[in-house]
Amino acid sequence: MSSHREAPEISKDPVADSTDVYAFVSPDKPDTVTLIANYVPLQGPAGGPNFFEFGDDVLYEIHIDTQGHAEPDISYQFRFQTQLPDPDTFLYNTAPITSLTSPAWNRRQTYSVTRIDSSGCHELGNGLICPPCNIGPLSTPQYAAALAEPAVHRLSDGSTVFAGQRAEGFYVDLGSIFDLLDLRPFQNLQVYAKALGFKAAPGVNTPKFLNVHSIALQVPISRVTAKGRPVIGVWTTASRQRVRVDDDSGCHFRSGPFTQVSRLGNPLVNEVIIPLGKKDFWNTRHPSHDKQFAAYFAHPEVAALLPALYPGVFPHLAALDAANTPRADIEAILLTGIPQGIIAGFTNFTGPVQADLLRLNTSIQPAVKPSIFGLLGGDAAGFPNGRRVFDDVVSIELRALAGVTVPLVDKSFTPDAAAGLLTDGLTPADLGTPYLDVFPYLGVPYDGYDHPAA
């Protein structure tokens, strides 16, 4: 969660596992859009001697739909290559890594960026270097200034790119939520927790002090939108070649066409909307085929679980579920975007094609006083209008599933009082390191030496 280990097969393949996607108008450069795709979930910083990296055999892509048909009109491809200067040492580094060209750094990655659009394929950069993982104060001194900042590259079309390790910016109480949807601030009302005498408590940020690998791209808005269509749909994929051959020496070779093994648009969709038996299948499908999954959005399982696990707390939601009323609000938010006329002055509608896309209206400028609750907090620049790194998507989606957004499509429905308060008890203050105010926005990765769990 957001999509960390969200399906049985991809949980075995972390380098291809997309964890989070972000798309937002850059607050410090409002004529640009920032797109971020994170992979390799739940990294322990002290994970030597084989530290985390992107997969050389994985095709990573960020896709953009500019026409509202849930097909990629623009795709950015990222391919990685690992170099090992000295294969006869077990060490990642043999002395302090003081720059991106340091000879002491023994396992480094470079990458290429290619843009595919209606005019063809365009290589925007090649041989771009990733920063090393943040090992510790002896191995990676002055990490931010000497290693991370020089790894922000300018591409040939003027866009900016970064690929490398970052601090996990997604905050969520995984331990509590997956323990029978126990929300610690409300566990005194949860049927099983109440029976054990649990009292309301603050949330615990499970990914705190963990890292991810991030691909971040900052592009002029004019380069990712169609004329007269400010709304874009964004998603990321990871693909592998179909055939793998292993030889007797332990080496393996891949060949054949690439096939999609992971994808992500809106947060939490495969995690809590798609049922267990279809999660792997979902990861292989293109968004344009998502109509086949629409029933799970119309009748989300969490909306039925909340009244059962919190008896008496959600009577209106229980009645809605008992009537088998399709959740047109959830379908709109996650599958089509919100049409004009539903919320005054706002739309991120891409069209009638039902597809899991992170939809961003690029004409909406960054908020002067952002709300972590995004659109539910009166901030139209936040989720579900795109997604910023600090948006509290767990609380937003919990509240929507609990019925807060039903009046958008049914004015006669009154949400339960508790629906607008739901949260796992976390905010950005529960991060171990702050976000950055500038690209790539996610914080400096944690190092293994100073890590609290080391």
Automatic annotation (TrEMBL):
Pfam families: DUF4331 (PF14224)
Domain of life according to the entry: Bacteria
Entry-linked InterPro entries: DUF4331
Protein name: DUF4331 domain-containing protein
